């Protein structure tokens, strides 16, 4: 949980470092079946706290952003995108800047219908980052991506779901139960196969058909060696629901 409600859960340096550490640990934790990211109180995340992180009065040295951000904010997006676990975001209120891109990078984002997705970079006088120029065109196409990035168009949760920007939009009263049901479903699934399927889907976005099918074969070889593959076949033969253990 992003827990800084007095700043709409805007991310400080220490919060980003902690989030990177949590995601790195999750990548190697065989006991985990899914990752859930949410925001405390009434907002998801208002992005990086640029005011708080630049209030020291001393101008950063030249190249500071290029040197530091690949290992902090950008690392968060990369980890969410490549983690071999399903990542689910619950979005209420504002998802702005990096908060928006964190939600877009997740495998499944469920938002309240009145949530607001916003890329305010150009409104603040600087260029987009944290994966927005890569994620948005792939999710909603170039025209809508330019509206969101260049014109600063805000998108509510219902529209985001309609456009395919996120997984689903529901009334706020139904949000928690909807996400819980989704997490339960993912956490009871064949975790190894889910992770490999996620990797293959992402790989295919910049591969040829032949390359994508070759990658599928390697992933198929691996998933067929998992215990859950044997359980899936047994459940099919016995006409029952499988009891996957994630191994």
TrEMBL record:
One matching Pfam family: ECH_1
GO molecular function terms noted in the UniProt entry: catalytic activity
SUPFAM superfamilies: ClpP/crotonase
Signal peptide: none
InterPro entries the UniProt entry points to: ClpP/crotonase-like_dom_sf, Enoyl-CoA_hydra/iso, Enoyl-CoA_hydra_C
Stated family: Belongs to the enoyl-CoA hydratase/isomerase family.
PANTHER family associated with the record: EG:BACN32G11.4 PROTEIN, ENOYL-COA HYDRATASE
Protein name as it appears in the record: Enoyl-CoA hydratase
The organism of origin for this protein: Mycolicibacterium helvum
Lineage per the UniProt record: Bacteria, Bacillati, Actinomycetota, Actinomycetes, Mycobacteriales
